[in-house]
Design goal:
5-stranded mixed β-sheet, 60s Ribosomal Protein L30, Chain: A, 21% helix, 10 strands, 188 residues, alpha+beta
């Protein structure tokens, strides 16, 4: 029997975060956004945030729910919530995902993409807040589907199909069952 059988499912939308006590399956789909999981087995707490942009523009957003759209705000907000529960940051298992370049980018562009800026902001803010990242899958050109089991700390990641580049015509390739099965990986 799977370890997540019977757990309630909670879908975390872009710009949202969820902190739960006990077991649940927190689900989301990422593209250029990042997803950060926080887990404490001792305190039986898990959280997932899904921010969309790297940096909060000002104090007005900090006072509203819209602050959760930003990597820096939402990580610091969850850190404060975990502190309020007494969960030690050094004992919190943190995993980081997403930040892909899923939109068409000019190959000659010198400006970093939103996905890259989101990933860099998450790494920086997590370090500033005293969290160590234990597993990570950042960048690439394909989105991710995440399933976070807050009872076990397991994060299942499935890569989504990439959209073809304009002007690039690629014939679909048939994948064997083993290849399809191996396109998914688990982070424990």
């Amino acid at each position: 029997m799977p370890s997540d059988a019977g757990l309630p499912e909670v879908y975390v939308q872009p710009g949202e975060s969820r902190l739960v006590h006990g077991g649940a399956r927190l689900l989301t789909v990422l593209g250029s956004c990042v997803g950060v999981t926080f887990w404490s087995p001792e305190w039986e707490v898990g959280a997932l945030c899904h921010p969309m942009l790297p940096a909060c523009p000002g104090a007005r957003a900090l006072a509203t729910e819209s602050g959760r759209r930003y990597v820096d705000f939402t990580i610091r907000d969850l850190a404060r919530q975990l502190d309020g529960l007494g969960v030690p940051r050094r004992e919190t298992v943190v995993k980081l995902f997403g930040g892909a370049d899923v939109l068409v980018v000019d190959p000659g562009a010198t400006r970093p993409t939103v996905g890259r800026m989101n990933g860099e902001a998450a790494v920086r803010v997590l370090a500033e807040e005293g969290f160590a990242v234990t597993a990570s899958s950042l960048g690439g050109r394909r989105g991710l589907h995440l399933e976070f089991n807050t009872a076990t700390g397991e994060v299942r990641v499935r890569r989504l199909h990439a959209a073809p580049m304009p002007g690039h015509h690629e014939r679909p390739q048939r994948r064997s069952h083993d290849e399809a099965k191996n396109s998914r990986f688990d982070c424990r």
